[in-house]
Write a structure and sequence with these properties.
The N and C termini lie far apart (about 55 Å). This protein has about 130 residues and is mainly beta. It has a single domain (about 1-130), classed as Immunoglobulin-like. The strands form two sheets. Strands 2, 3, 5, 6 and 7 form a five-stranded antiparallel β-sheet that branches. A three-stranded mixed β-sheet has the order 4-1-8. Helix content is about 15%, strand content about 45%. The chain contains two helices and eight strands.
Length: about 130
């Protein structure tokens, strides 16, 4: 019985042992920001399909967000600064963000976002730098 319990703990630790650190260059922005983390392509950029959501306060110049104990795999994330504190990303009539944004791989789409440009592999520990603008 002890061997099965130890094996279960070991397998769980292997599956949930990846850490993501996002270093956000936010210049002089202040206030609340949100990070939406997606696991895999299915449901990318759909609010109800987020794997994990993180709300945080921006620190002067640079903000570090740590998300620990994630299962290894393929991920993508987007970040936005909620300038007017309404809890949503405000966009114009063409769905272009009116508030500062950032994303995995520091990718800035010119047209409709494509998951393949945002995706990255998370194994043990990954650190990414993102410009929020």
């Amino acid at each position: 019985m002890k061997k099965i319990l130890l094996l279960t703990i070991l397998i769980t630790n292997l599956l949930y042992s990846a850490d993501l650190t996002v270093v956000i260059n936010n210049k002089n922005l202040k206030g609340t920001a949100y990070l939406a983390l997606y696991k895999g392509k299915e449901g990318f950029l759909k609010k109800d399909s987020m794997f994990k959501g993180v709300k945080f306060e921006l620190m002067p110049n640079e903000t570090v967000v740590d998300i620990n104990d994630l299962p290894s795999g393929e991920y993508a994330y987007v970040i936005f600064h909620d300038e007017n504190e309404n809890g949503i990303l405000d966009t114009n009539f063409m769905k272009i963000p009116k508030e500062p944004t950032g994303s995995s791989n520091n990718f800035r789409p010119k047209f409709k976002p494509n998951y393949d440009d945002f995706k990255f592999i998370l194994n043990e520990k990954v650190t990414q730098k993102v410009d929020l603008k």
